[in-house]
Amino acid sequence: MTCNITDLFYSFTEAICDLLKINLSVVAGFVYSKITEAQKDQKELVVQVASRDLKSRMPEYELISIIGILIDNALESTAPFGTAYLYLDSRQNQIEIRTRNKGSVKTNEFRQNMFSPGYTTKTGDGHGHGYSLYNLKKLTDKYNGKIYLDTVNTDQGDYIQFDVIV
Fold first, then answer.
1. DSSP3 helix / strand / coil % (the chain, rounded to 5)
2. Residue 43: which of 96, 88, 99, 106 has the closest Cα?
């Protein structure tokens, strides 16, 4: 896959235009900060906004927590020069937040453990890791939301996809 500066500029500009559609300006600013943070790590965060009017029963600051957890996990699993994806949509007074990043197929046991407090796949001592997906689940449950975790097969390989609807 080749990528030149024109492609990066177009992709970045397209993401910014999508963010300008969002009625939640704090969410838009937060996502923009994650795009620039990814660039500093030589990664790309591609954003697609399907609905201009994002509605949820959840307050904006908690939406930011969920979006942040999902983006951070996707970017942490993305290699330098790789791409993670964020999709935002809204229907029936709920927001759908979807992230996708390269990853292999996960077992059912692994999927269940991912949301347990303290469970981590990160190497090292494990201190300070393993609580973000647990917190994601708690926040989602608080608003009777749903979390879907799946592996998506594409021409570019396997991707791990999180869908959160709140």
1. 40, 25, 35
2. 99
pLDDT at 59: 95
Beta strands in the chain (DSSP E): 44-49, 83-91, 94-102, 146-154, 157-165
Residue range 153-164, pLDDT digits in tens: 888 889 999 999
Are 69 and 136 contacting, i.e. CB atoms less than 8 angstroms apart?
A: yes
Instruction: Write the DSSP symbol of residue 23.
Output: S
**Residue 14: per-residue pLDDT:** 66
Quick one: residue 130, left, alpha or beta (phi over 0 = left, psi -120 to 50 = alpha)? left
Q: Given the DSSP bridges, would you call strands 146-154 and 94-102 parallel, antiparallel or unpaired?
A: unpaired
Asked if 149 contacts 160 with a C-beta cutoff of 8 angstroms, the reply is yes
Q: 125 or 103: whose pLDDT is higher? A: 103
Structure-token pair, residue 79: 């290699």
Please, what is the average pLDDT of the chain?
A: 85
Distance, in Å, from the CA atom of 7 to the CA atom of 166, rounded to the nearest integer, reads 33
Query: What is the rounded CA–CA span in Å between residue 28 and residue 22?
Result: 6
Buried-state track 126-152, b at ≥16 Cβ within 10 A, e below 16: eeeebebbbebbebbeebebebebeee
